[in-house]
Amino acid sequence: YEVSMDFWINGRAVSVDIDLRTSLLDLLRDQLSLIGAKKGCNQGACGACTVLADGERINACLALAVQYQGREIVTVEGLADSHGRMHPLQAAFVEHDGFQCGYCTPGQLCSAVGMAAELARGVPSQVTGDVAAEGIALSRDELRERMSGNLCRCGAHNGIVAAIAETFAE
Ligand code: FES
């Protein structure tokens, strides 16, 4: 069953006909050619599909697109500024070799941006229950825990953590 819906993606209004069963990830990748968000597990376990919805990180593979009508979606393609300059976190990933094959990178980037917003809002750790102290300062262990929904199979975690820490946590 197809319906016409309006979305707000990376600062642009988008109207599209979608099947009600379409996931947000499939809408982005297959219908809008925004292929930054990746399909890894397609069941909420790897984080490769992470995007931002009203600033909150979500697994787009688990989200029905229809639920996000009118919400502000940001994908990795939307992280650079309007002049095409990389987001500071993207630059830090380059500097710290925060990737190898790059498959998890879009999800890592969006997840970290969402994590920083959670810290700023005082969202406590799901493991320790702790709220990050002043501002968004947090330990490397806490950072790893908060980013634990995003897997890297290459072994670039140390660079990823270093890049995120430099941008948001130090
Ligand atoms: Fe969505 Fe793995 S593809 S969490």
Automatic annotation (TrEMBL):
Domain of life of the native organism: Bacteria
GO molecular function annotations of the record: 2 iron, 2 sulfur cluster binding; metal ion binding; oxidoreductase activity, acting on the aldehyde or oxo group of donors
Entry keyword set: 2Fe-2S, Iron, Iron-sulfur, Metal-binding, Oxidoreductase
Coiled-coil ranges (or none): none
Domain 2Fe-2S ferredoxin-type residue range list: 3-79
Sequence intervals crossing the membrane: none
Official protein name in the record: 2Fe-2S ferredoxin-type domain-containing protein
Organism the protein comes from: Reyranella soli
Whole-protein residues included: 128 to 297 of 330
